[in-house]
Amino acid sequence: MKSRADTLPCLDALPGEWIAPPQWRAIDLISDLHLAEDTPDTRAALAHYLSHTSADAIFLLGDIFEVWIGDDARHQPFEAGLLAMFAQAAARTPLFFMAGNRDFLLGAAMARDAGLTRLADPCLLQAFGQRYLLSHGDAWCQEDHDYQAFRAQVRSPAWQQAFLDKPLQERRGIARGLRERSMAQKAGQADHPELWADLDADCVRAALRSQACRTLIHGHTHRPARHALGEGLSREVLSDWDLEASSPRAEVLRLEPAGLRRLPLAAATA
Q: Tell me, what CATH number does 140's domain have?
């Protein structure tokens, strides 16, 4: 009899792969910064981090932007400032970008100008003699059926082309409406964490086994922790960043020859 994991869409396609150069000694992984015009403290924290981290490379695993409505927006004042910040950082430290559910429309032009190397989702990272599976994570929230239907729609080439053909200001208005609905939904679930979408454990285990990996590193769920999955498998959930919050939060997951460790933002720039 087939297990449930055998019938789950764990991998839409074969993962991409990145092999860390042997001279690298520290790789930082971050996600879910949700940069927007109303998050100046988070943006400032990121600028400081990018200027001071000792990491040999930084992997940005999605939702770095609260919304990305097309690469033609990169010339607008706010987006142009972010582009310049990333380009300056990329001149010092390699930056790798994986799309999230908020910034999946970031394309080749923005990546080129900002110095970002785009990654497939999922992606295999080989470093320090180990294999790690990287993902934003949203594709594996299988129980969130409404979201998965929405995701399938907006990831289709036809929908994306139709959206990008709209005037920039119209796209911005659509994105604003989607953000307001998302924030309202989060507010309604704030006191009920059991309602928050999470990754399907069978799906993750199947994906890890299929790629001969023991650890998945992902964002999306805003539940930073190590989750044991049995069979010696686990997933490391990245922290979101919110320096505007009453209790500011920001954390970096650092991969070193000795393994993974979580660093408060201040320690990651020491």
A: 3.60.21.10
